[in-house]
Amino acid sequence: MGRLAVGVAVGVAVATCAVAGVVVGRRLRSRRKWRRVVGVLRELEDSCETPVGRLKQVVDAMAVEMHAGLASEGGSKLKMLLTFVDRLPTGSEIGTYYALDLGGTNFRVLRVQLGGTRSSILSKDVKRQRIPEHLMTSTSEDLFDFITSKLKQFVEQEETVSEAAQSRTRELGFTFSFPVKQISIRSGFLIRWNKGFAIEDMIGCEIVERLQGALMKKGLDMWATVLVNDTVGILALGHYYDADTVAAVKIGTGTNACYMERADAIIKCQGLLTSSGGMVVNMEWGNFWSSHLPRTTYDIDMDLESPNPNDQGFEKMISGMYLGDIVRRVILRMCEESDIFGPVSSKLLTPFVLEMPLMAAMHEDESPDLKEVAAILRETLEIQDVPLKARRLVVKVCDVVTRRAARLAAAGIVGILKKIGRDGTGGITGSRSKSDAKMRRTVVAVEGSLYTSYMMFREYLHEALNEILGEDVAQHVVLRTTEDGSCVGAALLAALHSSSSSSSSSDGLHRRQ
Ligand code: BGC
User: Keywords in UniProt for this one (predicted)?
Assistant: First the structure.
């Protein structure tokens, strides 16, 4: 071989090595980046872990906090608010009643015609409307003007209502799903806003008075008979259909639960006598907190940046308003760790841009190439051309966040069952074993988009309930989905407390002298 040929051969070999070196270097770098992204997921998985032992600690903490909240005002982060609802509908309510339901992204007006026997709802008419965003932070006058004008339109359009019903004052149940300190069944003061509402001039104000004033201004002859939380409406509807219903849970934009408590267990209100011996307590469980809750850095950052830091800690881990934002934060972190998702887009930096239905759609994307995930990343988060293996990671992130939420919600439900002695252990102080505790059929009414429309969430919740309670006990616990309970239930309670109803005693409540 001549010198030239040797030179060329060496040159080619050097060039080949250099190219190979670049390729290998690139591969190594990209592997390292990929490992970092996977590391973000692993870290998330670890910090979201909810083994059954931890869930049981959450159950105990919930039951203990319930006791504390009932013992004294401010005794716990759980407010355990009195609702003055001491009886629940039985199925014999009769007549036409209305409801106004304000509490989340949507606002609803309803008319219902009750048959009077065997829980028969003869007709139901509901109109839903998204609350214009600016009204959520405007003035109470603007907000009440808006809802009463929608109610007016609704009433003016009705055709099927009998003349007799039209000639008397229409009665309505007002569902107002925020923390409210009630002083009677139809009167209460707003403690604070949440779920994106922030109307300063209403904090501390009496709510029904505002509504009644706005109804008058609109020339509407309507009377708000009851003021209720959405969970109380759900419990009322649940009980209307099934007398074994003892509690209700809402898992939608926000989350909360209520249940029927013995009046003598409400120690902070000593001497409270009710005609039934019980009263529905609005737990406001969204504000529950315990050191046993698995908290991540994403939760901490989201809370700090929220308009209500340190409040609604449980809600921020569980409810629809927040889950998508936790996922967005994790994807953002992955983007910062690697260029596998391309550059950080401005959308990815926008809080709450990834709403819960989109997150659920990504989680439940069953197409082999995760088409839906790609479309949502592209259209909502402006992340283009994400490779399949990275899309799989996104699905996994949704899974981890949703699974934690569902399992914690299950622990919350068992906490309530424990407090009322329906978890098969004989109550919080009971020492009976599961085997000798006699279980009664126990129904919990559940509503909210996470539970009703997000299959994976619901499956995880049921799975955790079985794990915590054990199959023997879990078979006696029924989670029953109700529909439009927050407003139908309010109308039912309006019927139960109506001035024209024979079963209505002004409130049925007395204080021992
Ligand atoms: C509110 C509760 C409400 C729940 C579900 C929470 O943010 O504080 O009053 O019941 O959302 O709508």
Answer: ATP-binding, Glycolysis, Kinase, Membrane, Mitochondrion, Mitochondrion outer membrane, Nucleotide-binding, Transferase
